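Review form for a predicted model. The reviewer records the input and the model, then writes brief findings.
Reviewer: anonymous (R2)
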Amino acid sequence: MSDTYKTIANPTEGIYKEKGSKFLSFAIPVQTADEIKEIVKDYRKRFFDARHVCYAYMLGAERTDFRANDDGEPSGTAGRPILGQINSRDLTNIVVVVVRYFGGVLLGTGGLVVAYKEATADALNQVEIIEKTVDELIAINFDYILMNDVMRIIKDTNPQIIHQSFDNLCSMKLSIRKQEAPVLRAKLEKITGITIEE
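Model under review:
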């Protein structure tokens, strides 16, 4: 299994127009489902006069956490085409919101599928795709006297220090690429007096 995944660097916007209907699309990088809920709520507020606010998202390096929402459009005509565009680019940790302003002419299910697909593609064609590593967090506690030993291991294995507090009892949160985590753990476990939080 790969320990990298593709996501987007920054939010982007797109648009698609068909028979008077306007489809505004927004691609946004995200980390959690809670964050997505807030984003969708925000777009529904901002575009309160729009007929539909549809979206799809993909989360996690394994790309197993996803959802497509048609928001009142005929089933499968909005969320699924949006998700299809996310999938065709192998992206994750992303939500795409498409806001539809109805133009008075019905597009039919085929027309809707094309419109949501094209609006999403327009936003995704403008993103900067970045590759990220799947990281593991390791939290450790140790006496201040062990500081030099800990810092030597950090220098050797090069994890990112997310948080640290130094007192009589010191604590650190380290983030390291998942496939390199066992090496870091093994080195830390060799030193008596370091506890690794599970």
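Findings: The longest helix spans residues 108-124.
Further findings: The two ends are 23 Å apart (CA to CA).
Recommendation: see findings above.
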